[in-house]
Amino acid sequence: MKNPKALLRASVIGTSLVALCCFTPILVILLGSVGLAALTGYLDYVLLPALAFFIGLALYALWHKKQYDACGNTSEDSRSFPDE
Predict the structure, then answer these.
(1) 8 Å CB contact between 25 and 40
(2) DSSP code of 34?
(3) Number of helical (H) and strand (E) elements in the chain, helices listed first
(4) Each residue of 27-64: pLDDT tens digit?
(5) Any stretches that span the bilayer, and where are they (predicted)?
(6) pLDDT of residue 79 exceeding 80
(7) How far apart are CA 15 and CA 58, in angstroms?
(8) To 10 degrees, what angle do helices 4-23 and 43-70 make?
(9) Euclidean distance between CA atoms 49 and 36, whole angstroms
(10) H or E stretch covering 30
(11) Please, which residues have CB within 8 angstroms of residue 54's CB and are 6 or more apart in sequence?
(12) What is the DSSP letter of 24?
């Protein structure tokens, strides 16, 4: 991946969205208002694995960004050519 910041940004947004849905009754209210309240019993089967996935993705993105920055890769370095 050329830009680890995009992966980090996506993982943080996904983690915060899933955490918001896990710890607040947003989805319960939304599903109840559209007549799908019977699905609220299955939210834990979807939201908890999704939360674990996005936390893992965020940790991977942080590790990848750390290695990317340690190598000295920046967009300016890749465009410049050494003097011959």
Answers:
(1) no
(2) T
(3) 4, 0
(4) 888 889 999 889 888 888 888 899 999 999 999 999 98
(5) 12-39, 45-63
(6) no
(7) 8
(8) 150
(9) 21
(10) helix 26-33
(11) 11, 14, 15, 18
(12) S
